[in-house]
């Protein structure tokens, strides 16, 4: 299993203001579903930050997202090692397969892969 990118998820009620602010640093909006917006560096597209009011389908807002090349394998590794699964593995309407797991610091990590 390989990590493709790591994205901090910032819970915010100021999504538009965040777009303007981080735009001043050279970030551009690359995704916006209304409840989550992602900004990325045009020169280094994996350098990203997401801003979300709340998660659309999950019971909690994750602190970070980790995209992996095999989300099913990541899920099995976490389960086999007794990690706390906060949101079970499932396919979402917007094209990702994901689950949430709590890290040792109490942070919620959204582990995902894009469906082809």
From TrEMBL:
<dbReference type="InterPro" id="IPR037523">
    <property type="entry name" value="VOC_core"/>
</dbReference>
<feature type="domain" description="VOC">
    <location>
        <begin position="2"/>
        <end position="114"/>
    </location>
</feature>
<dbReference type="InterPro" id="IPR004360">
    <property type="entry name" value="Glyas_Fos-R_dOase_dom"/>
</dbReference>
<protein>
    <submittedName>
        <fullName>VOC family protein</fullName>
    </submittedName>
</protein>
<dbReference type="Pfam" id="PF00903">
    <property type="entry name" value="Glyoxalase"/>
</dbReference>
<dbReference type="InterPro" id="IPR029068">
    <property type="entry name" value="Glyas_Bleomycin-R_OHBP_Dase"/>
</dbReference>
